[in-house]
Each structure stands twice: as structure tokens, then as C-alpha cells.
Design goal:
Elements (H helix, E strand, L loop, with lengths): L7 E4 L5 E4 L40 H11 L12 E10 L18 E10 L14 E9 L2 E8 L12 H8 L15 H8 L5 H7 L14 E2 L4 E4 L5 E10 L8 H10 L3 H11 L5 E9 L1 H6 L19 E10 L4 H6 L12 E2 L4 H18 L66 H4 L16 H9 L2 H16 L4 H14 L1 H11 L38 E5 L6 H13 L3 E6 L5 E2 L5 E2 L3 E2 L10 E4 L3 H7 L3 H12 L4 E3 L4 H6 L8 E2 L4 H5 L16
Parallel strand pairs: 13-14, 13-18, 14-17, 18-19, 19-20
Antiparallel strand pairs: 1-2, 3-4, 3-11, 4-5, 5-6, 7-9, 8-9, 8-12, 9-10, 10-11, 15-16
Helix pairs in contact: 2-3, 3-13, 4-11, 12-14, 13-14
């Protein structure tokens, strides 16, 4: 409701509501509604007509401007990464990295640089859901005093293809099929797997894509990666190869597939809402930035090519050095102006950051500017506030559609000598502080015939896929097999399934057999590999379960407490305090949103209604029911499903003694994750119970 002290509310002839500036008072106030030309509007409820029931007049410029703007409010959505959520924050350097790079964010210990970070799905449109099985974009814009640096990556450290010329084919294959317009935001269809089965270089990425990494619990619990090998260059011109890693302070967490599907139905905006609400309540998401830095000699010693974007350097081979942290502490003021209009480009680098000859990276450097012009309609998109650098921008690039600046003088070129007559002469180049491209290897090593070929060092497509799969914890391996069975079950063409399984045979014979059994098909012979498949040392750092980033507490998580009339007030109060003390959020769920009358006669207001808050929304649940409440909820399907899903999704369940009949009806069997409501519940809620999984679902 409007503030009555600011507006008068009146009713028009047709009963319509008018909120108006008071006739008496300050008429210079910014409360006045105006057109885009600043002309104050007298009536925002009615068109200008010839008579009360007559035709609308063409001269109604208020109507024309309002409808004109509305008709053009939407811009073309991104071809990929269309559905995104973002936040403002800052990056803080842990140390002075001048020995490695002259890049401004790393120039001093404790230095803070403003950032804007956008997370996104890849395949779906802007109106799709948050939780499909999909790679997630992880793009960070650093607003440095030397210009903007965009670190544009994903939550997966490798990519599907080695050469950017294949990117249109990849995206065409994974998008909805051209003749039928579905499926949306899903890779489980013929064209995607046809392409993938014919592209052995995609095999490593497919292992990641079919793993739990692509069904994250929250945007706050994803790793991020720069994917490519970049360069850091110090003030003396010394170059060092570098790979970038974002490590979530809250740990890496994912969902079960069934859980992800049900979240999509319960809340299509689950990740977006989670990010917004976490920041809004002061639970700021935080990541640490790490690097793998190495020289050319180290790169040449590896059995794979560091310029190949389908390869990683395992952390056991080269540890990640943590160099700073990113904190996201402010939500966008306007979703369209910031989250939608932000334009990232991997070509936006600052002195001290440089590129390598990674052929996928080189193609990305070419394409992004063209994309931004197509979406934002002007070569001046960099002047939009969310894209504008926070340092002076001085050049001779004038004019163009939607030019916001008003350059003065006639010096729109250089060199010029207009200063000799006292005129403004404009900016000039600076070889000392300006960006200087790293020289790379010796010139003779970079030269050769013009060829459309892949280097032989890119030919091993299966060894790292094998490394990834075999490094996973046993439940994660089962999830990869399950995901492959699910996806390939949606493929109608049998020869595509056979070809894909033949490729999987090169990754791991047991994986191929598990998928074949899940499809009830014979196991084909492994396909011919372009290079010998190597057995590499396993990398436990690649695991989520039992890995270095597995959470060891409930900080930042959501714990649902189910109450009803008669629930014990002392138990609910103590439980809520323990959850909040551990840094988590307690959500009171009741049959009615108005709340429940507790044992002491007090009315506890609910945060959510049971029918509208399934347990997939929470990380663990507590059932704090009395005999009376249990008896009532035994007849409520939503309550039974609430408990059944939590158990099936391997979550901790804390339960009062009185609620046991509800647990029995939901099929809950005792295990380490089913506990009482005493102090042990908070500890139990910190993890999932993977040993339970074989008893609740069939996995390949």
C-alpha cells in the first residue's frame, strides 16, 4: 500500500483507483510520475479519448510511449546460459602476487575489488527451471582500477569439445530438437547423444555431466573453474601458465536425481530464490579462488596437452594454491538492468592476465562481442551501468547507436596535433602501463603451414574420463551409471545407444556393463580409440562424497521442523536454537500457514504450509509431533510424502517418539541418519546417508 502521507487516493468515474500527488504541497518532489522525456503525467489510468465512450486519440503521447516501451521491454535471450541469477560482491586478495602477475586484483594483500557474478544453466531458455541436469555457468566480472576482467567459466573444469568450430554443432544438438521443439533444458534425447557418441573428445565431459556435479543443491555449493589454461604475466614480462578454481566455503553439495525433479515441480526458481534469500538474511555466499600455476617445462612433462580444454591437471599432481576469496553480499537492484544486461567476454582481461593457444578459448574470444551486439542492440553496450568499468574510459570510439557520452572537441583520431592551437587532443597509448600481449614461445615454434588439423597431443579422449570415473566414491559411480541409463533410455535410435556404450567401454568396462544391463542390451565391443588409453593415478579430490569439499556442518543449510497442534514447545524451541547456533536456517512447517498451537498453549507461526513445502526444499527434517499431531497427519498424504521423500533422498530425519507411526507409514527404516530430537540431530543433519540408497532405489 502507498504511504497515505505521500499520496491522495481517489476514485474515478468508472470506479478506477487513482493515487495522486496532493493538490497542496511540494510539487517539485521526485514522487511525480513522468514520461521518459520528464513530462509529468496527470492521469495514468485512462487513455485520451474523444468523449467518455469515444475513440482513442492518436495524440495521446503518454499512451504511445508507455505501450511502445512495453512492446520492446524484452531483448533476445542468450543462446546459451539464458537462465541466470547473479549478485554483487567483492574479491579480497590473500597475498601480494606481484611475483606472478601485475593484475590489479592481486597487487596487495587484503586488496578488495568489486565483482558481479552470474550463475546460469546452459541448455534451457530464460523461462526454464533451475534444477535440470545441466552444466552451470560461473562468470565473474572484476571491476578493477585498470579495467574490467571477466573470468567466464563453468562449474565443470573441462568442456565437451576441443575446437570452437564445433560449438554451434554441440549447442544445436543439445537444444530442443528442431522439428518438435522439445525437450526443453534436457540432454536426454536423440540428437544430443548422436552427436556425443560421434565425438569421443566429449567423453570426459560426459562423465562430469552425468555425475552429481550437474544437479547441485545450491548455487552456493558449486565449484567454479576457468576451464582453459591462461597466463599470468608479471611486471618484468615473465609468463606463467595458470588454471583458475573457485572453491565454495560451504562445501560442494548436490541432490539426488529424484530430488532434483521434485524440486523443479515444487519451486522452479529454487536456486534463484536460495541465492536471493541467503544474501537477504546476511548468509553471504563465499568462495576461495585458487590457482594451479606452472611453467612450460612442467606442461611439457605431462602426458596430455594443457591447451586441450577436455583435460584437467589433477590436484594431486599440482595442488591448488588458494590466493583470495569472493563474497557475494548484495542482490541486484533490478534483474533486467543487471542480471539480464550484464555482458561477459573472456576477451576482457587486464594487464597481468593473458591467453594461450587453446583453440576453444581462441574461438570464444572471437564470438562474445558479436553476441553482445546481437542481444543488446548497440556497440555501446559497455556503457550500460552493469558493464561499465569503474575506471576512466578514454578513447576515440565515438557515435554508434545509443551513445550515452557526449564527447567534446573534434579530436576523434590520433595522432593529431590539435593541442598546438589549444584544443583538446585526446588520450594516447602507454607502453609502460598498457596491456602488452605475452610473446609466448619462440617465433619459430609458433610458425608452420596453414592447416585445419588437431595436434596429436589432443588425441587421447578416454584416459581422463577413466580417471574421473574411477576416482569417484562408489555411490557417485552408481549415480553416473544411473544418469547414463536414464539419458540413453530417452534415445529412440538403438544404434546411438550402442555407439555410446562402445565409447564407455574405453572408459571402464564395468561402467559399460552397468549401463548395458540398465538398458537390457548386450555390451558392445569398445570403440577404436585414437590414442592408447592410460591408467592414471586416481584423484580423490574429484569426489564429492568423502572429497576435500564435503561439508562438515550445517552452516548455510535449511532444516525443516514439522509441527502440529500439541507439539512440545520446549523441544521445538531448543531445536530451533541449536539449528540457528550451528549457522543453519530453521523453517517451521505446519499443516496450516497460520501455525500450530503448542503444548504450552502458545501459537507458533509457521514459515510454510505443509502442502506447499515438500521436504525436497530442505537439507534435513525434524518431525516434532505429539500423539495428537501424529494421529492427525497419518491421514494427510503430504505429511507421509514429506517424510518418505526425505528418507528416499538420504537426508537425516530427527523424530519425536510420538511421531514413530508416521515414520512407519512412510517406510522409514532405522539407520544412522534416523535419530531423535536431542543434541545428536544437528550433527546427523550435516550429511547424507549413502548406505541407505540401495534400499530405497534400484541403481545400475
Amino acid at each position: 500500500m502507498a504511504d497515505d502521507t505521500r499520496f491522495d487516493t481517489e476514485t474515478g468515474n468508472g470506479g478506477e483507483t487513482h493515487q495522486r500527488i496532493p493538490a497542496k504541497g511540494d510539487h517539485a518532489s521526485t514522487d511525480h510520475l513522468t514520461t521518459n522525456q520528464g513530462i509529468r503525467v496527470s492521469d495514468n489510468q485512462n487513455q485520451l479519448k474523444s468523449g467518455a465512450r469515444g475513440p482513442v486519440l492518436l495524440e495521446d503521447f503518454v499512451l504511445r510511449e508507455k505501450i511502445f516501451h512495453f512492446d520492446h521491454e524484452r531483448i533476445p535471450e542468450r543462446i546459451v546460459h539464458a537462465r541466470g541469477s547473479a549478485a554483487h560482491g567483492y574479491f579480497e586478495s590473500y597475498e601480494d602476487l606481484s611475483d606472478l602477475t601485475r593484475a590489479a586484483p592481486f597487487s596487495a594483500k587484503g586488496k578488495k575489488t568489486p565483482v558481479f557474478t552470474r550463475f546460469s544453466t546452459v541448455a534451457g531458455g530464460a523461462g526454464s527451471v533451475d534444477t535440470p541436469r545441466d552444466v552451470r555457468g560461473f562468470a565473474v566480472k572484476f571491476y578493477t582500477e585498470e579495467g574490467n576482467w571477466d573470468l567466464v567459466g563453468n562449474n565443470i573444469p573441462v568442456f565437451f569439445i576441443q575446437d570452437a568450430i564445433k560449438f554451434p554443432d554441440l549447442i544445436h544438438s543439445v537444444k530442443m530438437e528442431a522439428d518438435r521443439g522439445y525437450p526443453q533444458a534436457a540432454s536426454a534425447h536423440d540428437t544430443f547423444w548422436d552427436f556425443i557418441s560421434l565425438m569421443p573428445e566429449s567423453t570426459h565431459m560426459i562423465m562430469w555431466a552425468m555425475s552429481d556435479r550437474t544437479i547441485p543443491r545450491s548455487l552456493r555449493t558449486m565449484e567454479g573453474f576457468g576451464i582453459h589454461t591462461f597466463r599470468m604475466v608479471n611486471a618484468k614480462g615473465k609468463s606463467t601458465f595458470v588454471k583458475f578454481h573457485w572453491k565454495p566455503k560451504q562445501g560442494v553439495q548436490s541432490t539426488c536425481w529424484d530430488e532434483a525433479v521434485k524440486i523443479a515441480g515444487a519451486d522452479p526458481d529454487f536456486h534463484r530464490r536460495d541465492l536471493f534469500e541467503a544474501i537477504d538474511r546476511g548468509d553471504f555466499p563465499e568462495w576461495e579462488l585458487g590457482i594451479q600455476a606452472f611453467d612450460a617445462e612442467f606442461a611439457d612433462s605431462l602426458p596430455y596437452d594443457v591447451l586441450d580444454p577436455t583435460k584437467i591437471i589433477p590436484e594431486e599432481v599440482l595442488p591448488v594454491r588458494i590466493i583470495g576469496r569472493m563474497v557475494l553480499d548484495r542482490c541486484p537492484d533490478n534483474f533486467f538492468a543487471e542480471t539480464e544486461q550484464v555482458a561477459y567476454c573472456p576477451g576482457n582481461v587486464v594487464p597481468g592476465i593473458d591467453f594461450t593457444n587453446d583453440p576453444l578459448l581462441q574461438g570464444r574470444l572471437f564470438s562474445y562481442l558479436d553476441t553482445q551486439k546481437s542481444r543488446l542492440g548497440t556497440a555501446n553496450f559497455h556503457q550500460l551501468p552493469i558493464n561499465a568499468p569503474k575506471c576512466p574510459v578514454m578513447n576515440f570510439q565515438r557515435d554508434g547507436q545509443m551513445q550515452m557520452n557526449v564527447p567534446k572537441g573534434r579530436a576523434n583520431y590520433e595522432p593529431n596535433s590539435l593541442d598546438m592551437t589549444g584544443e583538446e587532443t585526446g588520450p594516447r597509448e602507454c607502453p609502460v602501463t598498457g596491456f602488452v600481449t605475452d610473446r609466448g614461445r619462440a617465433a619459430e615454434e609458433e610458425q608452420g603451414d596453414k592447416l585445419r588439423v588437431r595436434p596429436e597431443s589432443f588425441a587421447d579422449h578416454y584416459s581422463q574420463a577413466r580417471l574421473f570415473y574411477r576416482s569417484l566414491a562408489e555411490p557417485e559411480q552408481a549415480h553416473v551409471a544411473f544418469a547414463l541409463v536414464f539419458e540413453l533410455s530417452k534415445v529412440g535410435l538403438e544404434h546411438i545407444r550402442e555407439r555410446m556404450m562402445a565409447n564407455l567401454g574405453n572408459v571402464d568396462p564395468d561402467l559399460a556393463k552397468r549401463v548395458a544391463d540398465g538398458l537390457n542390451m548386450p555390451v558392445p565391443k569398445p570403440s577404436k580409440a585414437a590414442a592408447p588409453v592410460q591408467d592414471m593415478d586416481l584423484s580423490p579430490a574429484l569426489r564429492i562424497i568423502g572429497g576435500p569439499l564435503e561439508p562438515d556442518g550445517i552452516k548455510g543449510q535449511t532444516i525443516a521442523i514439522l509441527v502440529a497442534d500439541g507439539s512440545d514447545a520446549g523441544t521445538v524451541g531448543k531445536l530451533t536454537k541449536a539449528i540457528e547456533k550451528a549457522g543453519a536456517r530453521a523453517v517451521i512447517v505446519a499443516p496450516k500457514v497460520g501455525g500450530a498451537k503448542l503444548s504450552d498453549g502458545s501459537m507458533l507461526k509457521a514459515d510454510a504450509q505443509l502442502a506447499g513445502y515438500p521436504s525436497v526444499m530442505a537439507d534435513a527434517i525434524a518431525i516434532a509431533l505429539s500423539d495428537e499431531g501424529t494421529k492427525m497427519l497419518l491421514k494427510e498424504g503430504a505429511a507421509v510424502q514429506f517424510v518418505m521423500d526425505a528418507f528416499g533422498h538420504l537426508k537425516a530425519i530427527g523424530a519425536s517418539e510420538a511421531s514413530k507411526p508416521l515414520l512407519d507409514k512412510a517406510g522409514v527404516e532405522p539407520d544412522a541418519g534416523v535419530v531423535g530430537l536431542d543434541d545428536g540431530f544437528v550433527e546427523a543433519a550435516a550429511k547424507r546417508y549413502w548406505d541407505r540408497e540401495p534400499g530405497v532405489r534400484m541403481l545400475p
